[in-house]
Every structure is written in structure tokens, then in C-alpha cells.
Write a structure and sequence with these properties.
By secondary structure, the protein is α+β, with helices and mostly antiparallel strands. The protein has 4 helices and 7 strands, in the order βαββαααββββ. It is about 30% helix and about 25% strand.
């Protein structure tokens, strides 16, 4: 949807810019004048995620979020507890290759940092 600012329908140049991005990315689209202050750009439901990416990469904002992408699934407490063992930050003190053969060694807090989420 391309909401208007100041209560006016989006200009033809705004709709042309949005349509140009969608057309260049290979999407079929159309517009729907929903009210005096809003014009909605329509794309096929199966194209919505990819069309959103194309528009955002071109500098447009797309919303509302709950209409553009699916909601994340509820968190599974058992999985979250299990995943805690694999998430964190580590400082490298020694690199071995192959295992058992030290290739690099670092003093505490001087080695590269690994972040895993």
C-alpha cells in the first residue's frame, strides 16, 4: 500500500516509481483506489515476499508488516533452552589444523572473537 501524506492521493510519480520497480523485477501489479487518502498497490499473494524485498531495496517502505510477511511462530521453551548451549561469544586462544597441531596461539582476550546466534 502506498499511503498518502497530507490527506492527498499519492502522486503519479510515486506510483510510477513503485510500478517501475515491480515491473523491472518481473511482477504483475495493479492499483486500487481504496479511499481518498490511500492507494493500494496489488501483487499476487505468492509474489508478496519477493515484491516487498524489491521495493525495500529500491528505498520504498512497505507495510503493514503483518500483511506483508507471516508472523514468526511462537517460541518453543524446550528448544530455546536447548539452543542456549549453542549461542554465545567465544574468544579464540588457539587454532589447530589438523586437530592437535597448533597453527596460531593468542594471549587471553587478544584472539579473534566468534559470535554465534
Amino acid at each position: 500500500s502506498a499511503p498518502a501524506t497530507g490527506g492527498a492521493v499519492p502522486s503519479a510519480s510515486v506510483l510510477a516509481a513503485i510500478g517501475g520497480v515491480l515491473s523491472a523485477a518481473g511482477f504483475r501489479w495493479s492499483t486500487l483506489l481504496a479511499a481518498e487518502s490511500e492507494t493500494t498497490v496489488l501483487v499476487r499473494e505468492e509474489d508478496l515476499p519477493s515484491a516487498t524485498v524489491a521495493l525495500v531495496r529500491a528505498g520504498h517502505s512497505v507495510g503493514p508488516p503483518d500483511r506483508v510477511c507471516i508472523a514468526p511462530p511462537p517460541e518453543d521453551p524446550a528448544a530455546a533452552e536447548h539452543n542456549d548451549h549453542f549461542v554465545g561469544a567465544w574468544g579464540l586462544t588457539r587454532r589447530e589444523q589438523p586437530a592437535g597441531t597448533t597453527v596460531e596461539q593468542y594471549a587471553a582476550k587478544d584472539g579473534p572473537l566468534r559470535l554465534q546466534a
